[in-house]
Amino acid sequence: MRSLRRGRPVVAARRRMSAAFDAAVTTVAILAGLALSAFILVVAGVPAEELANEFIVNTLTDADNLRAVLAQAAPLAFVGVGAALAFRVRFWNLGLEGQMIAGSVAATAIALADVGPPVWRLFLMLVAAMAAGMAWALVPALLKLRLGVNEVISSLLLNYVALNFLLHLLYGSWKDPVDAFPHSPAFDPFERLPDLGWGLNAALPLVAAAAVFAAWLLGRSRAGFYMRFVHANPSVALAKGLPVAALVLTAVLLSGGYAALAGVCLSVGQEGRLTQAFFAGYGFSGILIAFLARNNALAAVVVAFLVAVLFVSGQSLQVFYQIPFAMVRLIEAIVIISAAASEFFLRYQVRWLR
Amino acid sequence: MMEFLIAWWANVPEAAAAYALAALGLLLCERSGVLNLTAEGLMLVGAMAAMGAALQIEGYPGMALVVGMLAAALVSLLFALLVVTLRVNQVIAGLAIVFFCQGFTQLLGVMFDWQNHPVPGLLPVRIPLLADMPIIGRVLFEQNGVVYLIVPIFFAVQWVLHQTRAGLRLRSVGENPEAADAAGVSVPLVRFGAIVAGSALIGLAGGLLSVGGVKMWFPDMAGGRGWIAVALVIFARWQPWRALAGAVLFGCIESLVPRIAAAGIRVPQYFMLMTPYVITLVVMAWTAWKGRSRSSEPGALGQPFSREERR
Amino acid sequence: MTVTTAAPALALSGVSKRFDGFPALDGAHFSVREGEVHALLGENGAGKSSLMNVAAGLYLPDEGEVRVDGVVRRFSGPLEAAACRIGMVHQHYKLVRALSVAENVMLAAMAVESQSAGGDRSADKVGTTASRAALRTSYGSRLARIRALIDDHAARLGFSIDHRRAVHTLSVAEQQRVEILKALVTGARILILDEPTAVLTDEEATRLLQTMRTLAAAGAAVVLVTHRLRDVREHADRVTVMRAGRTVAECDPRATSTAELTELIVGAAAPAVTRKAAAPGVARLAIRNLTCRRHDGFEVLANLSLKVRSGEIYGVAGVGGNGQTELVEALLGIEPPVSGEVIIDGVGDIAMASPAARQSIGVAAIPADRYRLALAGTLPIADNYGVTRVASGAYGSVLWVDFRRMREEAAAGVREFDVQGVRRIEQPAGLLSGGNAQKLVIAREFASAPWLVVAHSPSRGLDVRACADVQRRLIDAREAGAAVLLVSEDLEEVLLLADRIGVMSRGRLVAEFDAPVDRQRIGEAMVDHA
After folding, report:
1. A157, B280: Cβ pair inside 8 Å?
2. What is the pTM of this model?
3. How many helices (H) and strands (E) does chain B have?
4. Fold (CATH) for C10-266
5. Is the pLDDT assigned to residue B150 strictly greater than 90?
């Protein structure tokens, strides 16, 4: 019983913490997560001495791989910043993949129906994609604001709805007549994100602008200042007369729009057509990025770059060592678990009583 | 028409059983105040582990299911460590565990090459006499063993919650952990117990999907059923009876979809596959609209407990 | 009263306890005998509750000892105290609201049984065997036994309580009875009640105190922690007075005059507030027939009307829970009323306006629940200071918030209103102590000269100095011509500050008085309608 024990650990909230301590703990946690992942990779058959080579040297020094990383970073940054926007108003937008699908479906519809003159086509596609992503995000947002329906479940379920709708199109009217595969016909060159040279397309400047905009909105605008209160204490925000519903709606819609643009980076930017699984894994990556970046838009871009390194390394592991790409998902999950667990040490301190 | 209905209804109990098991498991966990989003992941773990066991030890599907339960319970220890001991945000922890399980099961399943290997799995058990009854016989008394197990499991959950000291502790922890703590109940211990026990049921639901239902394994085979189960618990307002009724409803919808296709009715296939999710959304919205008060929710759901130490 | 030579039932001596270096108890002592009701008297923050928390095993003392029946005990938790048959009814009830009365008592009983059955130093061997036996019986029969015990104790004390009802359907007074029953069913012989009458009407309080007499007559030792002199004078056998963590006196309440007791409690004479005579002007706030309902349809405010003029403080007195919170929340737009008008001079009726629509009116709001309605504890002091004035453009435009100016003004405001404990203006507001957090709220709300002030229990939980500061600010606002509505459950505060006083009971304004007013008459109005 309690009285027999030689004391017990007591957990108390940490009153103060320094930024340096915060950074150190988080870094250690992420490194621990990566170390565990490395161990799993070794067990799975990747030679230990090759790991560093695969992950760092090859991806960052090889021009092709670096290009791949940069290309991969753009959609990841979009979903990451998008997730961060929603999290800033305490809205768990887990429907990022559904919003990616909705956006790309809308963009593809514009392209397939040849709406507007070719010069304006791409612009119209982007606008349509954002509008569709926002509309898809609007559903859980309204359900939450109006009826109090838990957005975690509603936004997630909409992913499955979007996915089935996508499959309905790809196996139905949008099936490519050329090869009869379940993907849409290829877009015309002017319907794709333009190349900027060195094998990179316009996704990068687009995402840079979007991240700067989000950083301004969250960090500098009056709406962003109010969002801090919505995040920190919604009841105080309401009592102080802040337009809470409008703020939530703004952030969530933007989040949906950003997710749609992430989808566009992949479908309109990289693949050049609408495919079955272009979105797979990005939803969780967005949550991971926002979480590790502490919902900071600019930090999200940096984290997105690191996750892109992981993605590209994962692809080469798949090619060279037949490691399923699911490994990337597992590594992401391990990293987020260790980072989340480490927050305990940031928020609490453990003392031994008696 | 009758033939269609019977063929449909005969498939309902098994589909409903997976929802019922997952929902009862979640309910147990959430009544202790832990918001559990891990169901989708734990079902995958249960499904994979049960299939792995079924492929290794052929002919003992019951053992395979037990392995599935144990595997899910084991993974849930990690979840419990995160949300109970380390007080991680329960949404983040739940999601992380789901993605962990998705990655993990896919990796293992593919590496061990358990994909698309059919097994005999659970066979239907005919209950003598009862199974000979018209219609009801085929619908209710020619099911696999786990379906019958739902009845004792349901009453066990109900009994544990309301007729035992453990259940009283569990409910008090879920409603007011501070008061339970003051009454000497170990909040972490009760929550660990509830998470592990509930997750074993979720693992059984997963095992039922692979070993009982399609009798093989493929990645991401839970296909969102775990999320539906989470929603089910919300609109069951954390009451076992309602959860069971909801499970039957979703069992009906899920087994209707392939029946309609088989009957040659021309409905766009993917729209049919969408229905469970759309209906879940509609039911959630409707429940929210109807019962505006959230009084039935366990008082401390989703809130980590930390004793205020002023000693 | 029987004079015994035996050791007192509970005795604490030389008890000291520090929290974060601040001494809450400083060599305090206290003892209670069987068969007596012993009052522990003192101001808020005098250390009464801390001392009793030591007795109940909640706090571990830094120094000093606890003796039960003459035996030194060292409790490492409340359950060990319970095993020594010490039961405490806290100010904030530790009940599980969704469970029934019987289940709540059962939960407590289970805890004590397992403690006595397993603990190696429990009070007596007989209890141990009995507990083991209780643990072995089935849940159903144990619950039936508990129900019988509840009815039994309730009948003896003259309570009427339905053990099947869920606790959240009970009134505050009934919930208190459940707490008492919990202690009694688990075998408490030393019963400590922390401020039990604070939440009760006078009638309920009298009944409770009579019940405590009954208990004491049956041999229990009852400790009554209170700051109400009246409770003590009429119902206690002995009284111990505490001040600033020390025990200052132990005496017979009947042999001690009120003036003497008051002086023992407050030390020097109570600080008087100086102020000018009221010079009321136009009615800035007029409430007409305001009616509010709870979700279950219960009318929490019924046809309430009152007027607050510029240059006056209108005090709303009443026992807590009679609609004060609802009145304030309706005025701030948090819970809209069902009907009625809230007319602001020069603006019109805002009864149905949302908080957002009210922002421009500039009502200075000092709500009772700071961290629910006023401050975001995790955000910086500067943000909390700036949030009300951002919309007016004081800190930059919609597109660019001037955080530097916000920080500078926050720093100035914090200095002007003497908010202590601010190391950096960026530190989270939640790190401030209660009094300083309240001063921060006032600094923000009074940043531009206040015009209409709505304050709800503004000095609740504050130490004497902070309390005086806060009250001074309200007087200053009044003297500068503001209309002040002061809703407070602390009658002293209302009497001290208000120019006119309305008494609330059951959601109605049952009486109105002009200051100075005889407290006896207000007291009567407060309980007449109960």
Report:
1. yes
2. 0.89
3. 12, 2
4. Rossmann fold (3.40.50)
5. yes
